[in-house]
From TrEMBL:
Species of the source: Lederbergia citrea
PANTHER family per UniProt: RIBOKINASE, SUGAR KINASE
GO terms for biological process, alphabetical: D-ribose catabolic process; lactose metabolic process
Active site: residue positions: 258
Listed name of the protein: Ribokinase
Positions contributing to substrate binding: 16-18, 44-48, 145, 258
Stretches assigned to the Carbohydrate kinase PfkB domain: 6-297
């Protein structure tokens, strides 16, 4: 087993630097407005999910690609400070690190323009090389912001190793139905659900329709259909559970879905059932949207304090810290 890696959770996905501009309202086409402030923050769906798992006490592999530039150095240092294994990071000279230009308005809603950059350099050979050294990882957490060939390769490798595969089918623009064939659980939001099923989810009833469509037509037995402030529907091979959202004053919704997916992975890695995992994820995401930045994920101590103050409970989280 010498030279092999045994992190509990393996994340494959995008790594970006987020340029976040805060403004009272979005400018119209051709309009110039003065915003409130701008911040440079580490981001990318894959990186956000890896940071979530690490801050919740799990050992994490991160497989992704960055440029050999200033942003790449900052991001790699951020991973290391959060005890994330970076040996599987690809560093490319001819591409800049991925970048997301994000605008957040007074209602905490956001628009996002993503420049993939080095993320598009991740290929099948990189995936196979990484997985050849990974053992005992329980969970694969993956999204759709990297090339589809790399996504499918990672899911195939994980399936061969008996890992539980969580697919966050985001963004909607990048979703392909082929990837669904390997997923043990998917976590689409409203836009992604409509993209994949054609169903406009506006209620629990239409969410159930979507869950049944995933199962009967796309072969996905387990799905968590995220309905934003309305809550989430867990469709578990025909069993239905609705989990209400936790009411909070949202500051920044960027990365909310990533913190949700990361929390799910942590709970499932601990052997929790899907209902327990979804309830835990709702707590983590609620705390995250109360703070600015895609990676402002709460620690276990902060979660415990929040639950005590709000009369909430969750399973006892196992950690390696």
């Amino acid at each position: 087993m010498r030279g092999l890696n045994m992190a509990e959770i393996t994340v494959v996905g995008s790594i970006n630097m987020d340029i976040v501009a805060l403004t009272n309202k979005y400018p119209e086409h051709g309009e110039t407005l003065f915003g409130d402030s701008v911040k440079l923050l580490c981001g990318g769906k894959g990186a956000n999910q890896a940071i979530t798992c690490a801050r919740l006490g799990k050992s994490v592999n991160m497989i992704g690609s960055i440029g050999m530039d200033t942003y790449g150095k900052v991001i790699e240092k951020n991973f290391q400070e959060n005890q994330i294994d970076t040996k599987y990071l690809k560093r490319v000279e001819n591409e800049s690190t991925g970048c997301a230009i994000i605008t957040v308005d007074a209602a905490a809603e956001n628009t996002m323009l993503v420049i993939k950059g080095a993320n598009d350099s991740l290929n099948v050979r990189d995936i196979q090389a990484a997985f050849s050294r990974i053992e005992e990882s329980k969970i694969l957490l993956i999204q759709m912001e990297i090339p589809e060939a790399a996504v499918l390769s990672a899911m195939t490798e994980a399936k061969n190793k008996g890992m539980f595969i969580i697919l966050d089918p985001a963004p909607a623009e990048g979703v392909t139905k082929q990837a669904l064939l390997y997923a043990d659980l998917i976590t689409p939001n409203l836009q992604e659900t409509k993209q994949l099923t054609g169903i406009d989810v506006t209620s629990i009833e239409t969410a159930i329709e979507a869950g049944e469509y995933f199962n009967q037509h796309l072969g996905v037995k387990n799905s968590v259909i995220k309905m934003a402030e309305k809550g989430a529907l867990l469709y578990e091979n025909g069993k239905l559970t609705f989990v209400e959202a936790i009411p909070v004053k949202a500051v920044d919704t960027v990365g909310a879905g990533d913190s949700y997916a990361g929390a799910l992975a942590c709970a499932i890695a601990d052997g929790e059932n899907l209902e327990s995992a979804v309830k835990f994820a709702a707590i983590v995401a609620a705390i995250k949207v109360s703070n600015l930045g895609a990676q402002t994920v709460p620690t276990i101590e902060q979660i415990n304090k929040y639950c005590e103050e709000n009369n909430l409970s969750y399973y006892r989280l196992q950690t390696n810290q």
